[in-house]
C-alpha cells in the first residue's frame, strides 16, 4: 500500500466552493432557458388560438350576417366547449366587431415575439410590460390564415 495516499489531505474548502458555484451556474442557466422555451411554446399556442377564434368569427358571420360580440356566442357550434376565454398566459381574448371586419386581440408578455413573426394582418402594440396582439379579418378574406415564422419567436 502506498503510504503517500494516506498522508494526502482531503478536498479543500476552496475546491468544494468552486464545484458548487459551477453547479449553481449550470442549474440557473437551464432554469432560465426552460422558462423562455415555455413562454415561446405558450406564445405559439396563443397564436394558434387567435387563428381559430378569427376563423370561428368568420364562420359565425357567414351563418348569421353579424359578428359575434364575445367568445361565448361562438360555443359550441364554432368553438369547442372546452375552449378558454383566456390565452396561455392568462390574458383574455377580446372580440371587437366592426361593420365589414372583426378584430380579435389578446395580450402576451413583452419581448417574446417580434413584428417579423406575423403576416401583415397581425398588429403588435407594446403596452408596458406586455404586447397586445390584434388580428383583423374583413369578411371578404374567408381563406386567410395567420402567418408567422417560428424562427422569429424569442430564443429560436
Q: Concise description?
A:
The protein has 156 residues and is an alpha+beta fold. The protein has helices at 3-7, 13-64, and strands at 94-97, 101-109, 122-127, 130-138. It has one domain.
Describe this structure as you would to a colleague.
The structure is a single chain. This protein has 156 residues and is of the alpha+beta class. The chain has one domain. The protein is built from two helices and four strands; from the N terminus they run H-H-E-E-E-E. It has helices spanning 3-7, 13-64; strands at 94-97, 101-109, 122-127, 130-138. A four-stranded antiparallel β-sheet has the order 1-2-4-3, covered by helices on one side. The protein is rod-shaped and about 90 Å long.
Amino acid at each position: 500500500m502506498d503510504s503517500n495516499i494516506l498522508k494526502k489531505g482531503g478536498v479543500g474548502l476552496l475546491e468544494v466552493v468552486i464545484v458548487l458555484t459551477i453547479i449553481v451556474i449550470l442549474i440557473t442557466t437551464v432554469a432560465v432557458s426552460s422558462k423562455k422555451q415555455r413562454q415561446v411554446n405558450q406564445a405559439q399556442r396563443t397564436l394558434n388560438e387567435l387563428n381559430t377564434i378569427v376563423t370561428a368569427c368568420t364562420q359565425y358571420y357567414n351563418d348569421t350576417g353579424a359578428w359575434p360580440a364575445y367568445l361565448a356566442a361562438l360555443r359550441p357550434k364554432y368553438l369547442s366547449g372546452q375552449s378558454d376565454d383566456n390565452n396561455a398566459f392568462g390574458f383574455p381574448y377580446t372580440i371587437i366587431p366592426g361593420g365589414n371586419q372583426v378584430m380579435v386581440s389578446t395580450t402576451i408578455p413583452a419581448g417574446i415575439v417580434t413584428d417579423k413573426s406575423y403576416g401583415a394582418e397581425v398588429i403588435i402594440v407594446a403596452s408596458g410590460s406586455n404586447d397586445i396582439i390584434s388580428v383583423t379579418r374583413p369578411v371578404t378574406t374567408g381563406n386567410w390564415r395567420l402567418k408567422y415564422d417560428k424562427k422569429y419567436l424569442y430564443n429560436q
